[in-house]
Design goal:
The protein is an alpha/beta fold. It has helices at 47-59, 66-82, 103-112, 123-131, 140-145, 166-176, 207-216, 260-277, and strands at residues 11-19, 22-29, 35-37, 93-97, 115-119, 135-137, 151-157, 178-189, 203-204, 219-227, 238-245. The protein contains 8 helices and 11 strands. The protein has a 7-stranded mixed sheet with strand order 6-5-4-7-8-11-10, with helices on both faces. It has a 4-stranded antiparallel sheet with strand order 1-2-3-9, with no helix packed on it. The termini are far apart. The chain binds zinc ion.
């Protein structure tokens, strides 16, 4: 697999792990420093994986389960609570890519009284969201083929780490889906706090590499923060960015990240220390 950020094929071994019984091998790109999965047969790069297998492997269930819906609800309210403090334009149309059961779309509809469109490859989840009145399509290609009216808000929540070629996807959002005054909202696991190694996580983003990714795709980051909602008040498990599209001439230079291994090691040592000092309050209870 080539590097999802810079497309280089040069890498060196980073870490070997197992996830859901499958071996997963992570390498580090020698050009940009991104840690990503390696091997020709990266399981999660296969589209069929998301259509049916993903929910079965991760949740032993194809249909939305209440625990998962509750987590999505907590996440959606956190995301929406951040938006009013930032220069969000009047949102008439919102799009959530990787919309799952449509919980974030529910929140968008409530907050902005806007039209809601979702992209979700999982058949059962897509149907579930469509039953709530959201316009749902299985793939981004299907949506682009419809030449839809532009959106003022586009989100990818825990999606980018699953993509083989996120730069191209973000560029097509920039060129064909997002209004010039619109905003892009992205959340991914933070490699400097989250375990990150999972079968379906093709890449492990840090604040640096996530910002580089957005820059390569023609976006300027206007808000960037780490947080633990809804899993922890003490660990910055997730990276959240809000970005706006910019008119750029050509490809901006790519700045490589240095000392990733050292920073990961220090971050995970810090996490272990926090868990040791606050054994009862590092992790928030999961909804049942
Ligand atoms: Zn790279």
């Amino acid at each position: 697999m080539t590097c999802p950020l810079c497309r280089s094929e040069h890498h060196h071994p980073f870490e070997q792990s197992t996830s859901f019984g499958y071996p997963v091998q992570y390498v580090q790109c020698t050009r940009c420093g991104l840690v990503h999965q390696a091997g020709d047969a990266v399981k999660a790069a296969d589209p069929a994986f998301y259509q049916e297998l993903y929910r079965k492997v991760y949740q032993s269930n194809e249909r939305p389960i209440s625990k998962d819906l509750k987590i999505q609800e907590m996440r959606a309210h956190h995301l929406c609570s951040l938006l009013p403090a930032n220069p969000v334009p009047r949102v008439c149309r919102s799009l959530d890519i990787g919309a799952s059961a449509g919980v974030l779309l529910d929140a968008y509809r409530e907050f902005f009284a806007c039209d809601t469109v979702g992209v979700e490859p999982g058949t059962a989840y897509r149907k579930y969201a469509a039953e709530k009145g959201h316009t749902m399509v299985p793939t981004l290609e299907d949506l682009l083929a419809q030449n839809p009216e532009l959106f003022q808000l586009v989100s990818l929540i825990h999606v980018v780490e699953h993509l083989e070629n996120p730069v191209d996807m973000l560029r097509s959002i920039h060129h064909s889906l997002l209004s010039p005054d619109g905003l892009l909202l992205i959340e991914v696991p933070n490699f400097y706090a989250h375990d990150s190694y999972e079968l379906a996580h093709l890449a492990c983003y840090t604040p640096h590499t996530l910002h580089q990714l957005l820059r390569q795709a023609g976006f300027e980051v206007i808000l960037s923060k780490t947080h633990g909602v809804p899993r922890s008040e003490k660990l910055g498990l997730y990276l959240l960015v809000l970005a706006k599209p910019v008119v750029s001439a050509g490809n901006p230079p790519l700045e490589a990240e240095k000392n990733v291994k050292l920073k990961r090691k220090a971050a995970m040592s810090w996490r272990r220390l926090v868990q040791k000092v606050f054994p009862n309050s590092t992790w928030l209870p999961l909804p049942q």
